[in-house]
Design a protein that fits this description.
Strands 4, 5, 6, 7, 8, 9, 10, 11 and 12 form a 9-stranded mixed sheet that branches. A 3-stranded antiparallel sheet has the order 1-2-3. The chain is globular. Helix 8 links the parallel strand 7 and strand 8. Helices cover 39% and strands 20% of the residues. With 376 residues, the chain is α/β, with parallel strands linked by helices. The protein starts with a strand and ends in a 13-residue tail after the last helix. Helix 7 packs parallel to helix 8.
């Protein structure tokens, strides 16, 4: 079975509730749907989320690199020759989410061709993932109201608090209000998106020492090398690398140089193949990982569930899987259900990212189409 076609389809779906954080904000899911079609007619699907303020990719750049650079080199390759595909992708530097989507779409093809769920092909450890919900910049009381609503509606008890604001007291107050309002059983952690300096982060940790936070993600710019190393050495909770460790090599660098002692893993930027290598490295080094979120659609979210459920090491911590709740609509044909704070891994062959074609036609932006209609 050989690759016959590789497509990159841009589309836009608005967010009902924009998410704001230290490195930017997301108002619209201006993503790219990547599709690989084989000569036997099997179609693999994945989602690529542009994050220009984090990785430099835009919707247009993803479409260009997939269709102009990757596609001509991938067409004709056997779908099982994954290392040949990886070699093609590696010839182009950066463009991580474009590469990740191609890899996931290929795994989707392989799973369908073999008649097996990809989560089983990867490892098959568990059948569902516990969900963590992300809370953006809002007044503390509003954050608590939202967290309580999410807990009561979906059974989610783990929350990521987006921080990195100035003054620092805003974030400290939010963390304290959430802890007091949610109780000791709730799991809380913070993500500053490089919004502080290392010294500011140390002050925040001092002020929140009694709140039982799980960890702190990207407190400062990792290029602040000495400050970051000092912070990791002195912190009583793990310091997680996310934006500073998008690839296997960069993750290894951050761990070995003392820039982090916990890793965020995002399949949207690593695909499944490189993500599995990162998990193996982390497990061998005795470092925990958790599945993060690129403000993913349901198509991207289900890929994260598939990967996270495959490995014991990725299933230990709650995964960030619920940001699609803030979208006005989605492309996934079978909407994701969050029940008792968990999302089940698809049992169908492939990744489980079958798209509603009518919605794709309505929301795609690369051809003349009727104005988007909000589907119920």
């Amino acid at each position: 079975m050989k690759i016959q076609r590789v497509e990159a389809i841009p589309y836009e779906i608005p967010y009902v509730t924009p998410l704001k954080f230290a490195s930017g904000e997301v108002l619209t899911a201006d993503h790219v749907l990547v599709r690989i079609t084989t000569d036997d007619g099997v179609v693999g699907t994945a989602d690529a989320p542009p994050r220009p303020y984090t990785y430099g990719e835009t919707q247009k750049s993803i479409v260009a690199v997939v269709e102009d650079l990757f596609a001509p080199q991938l067409v004709g390759l056997d779908v099982l020759d994954r290392e040949k595909v990886q070699a093609v992708l590696a010839r182009t530097i950066h463009n991580e989410t474009a590469k990740g989507a191609v890899d996931i779409a290929l795994w989707d093809v392989i799973g369908q061709a073999l008649g097996q769920p990809v989560t089983k092909l990867l490892g098959g450890f568990t059948d569902s993932m516990r969900v963590s919900h992300m809370l953006g910049f809002k007044p503390a009381a509003e954050l608590l109201d939202l967290a309580l609503e999410i807990r009561d509606t979906y059974g989610i008890t783990t929350f990521k608090l987006k921080t990195g604001r100035h003054p620092l007291s805003l974030d400290v107050e939010a963390a304290r209000v959430l802890r007091e309002g949610l109780g000791e059983d709730a799991e809380l952690y913070m993500d500053a998106n490089r919004g502080w300096s290392a010294n500011e982060a140390m002050e925040v940790l001092r002020r929140t020492d009694d709140l039982g936070l799980q960890f702190l993600e990207e407190p400062d710019d990792a290029r602040e090398v000495l400050g970051r190393r000092r912070l990791v050495e002195r912190s009583m909770i793990p310091i997680a690398a996310d934006e500073s460790a998008p690839t296997l090599g960069e993750a290894a660098r951050e761990l070995l140089t003392g820039g982090a002692n916990l890793l965020a893993l995002k399949t949207a930027r690593s695909g499944f193949t490189e993500a599995a290598k990162i998990v193996g490295m982390a497990e061998g080094m005795g470092v925990d990982v958790y599945v993060g979120n690129q403000i993913d659609t349901q198509v991207g979210t289900i890929a994260s569930v598939v990967f996270g459920a495959a490995f014991a090491h990725t299933s230990r911590r709650a995964a960030e899987l619920s940001n699609f709740l803030d979208m006005a609509d989605d492309l996934l044909a079978e909407p994701i259900i969050i029940s008792d704070g968990r999302i089940a891994a698809p049992r169908v062959p492939g990744v489980g990212t079958t798209v509603d074609e009518d919605k794709l036609t309505a929301y795609r932006t690369d051809r003349s189409a009727p104005a988007p209609t909000m589907f119920s």
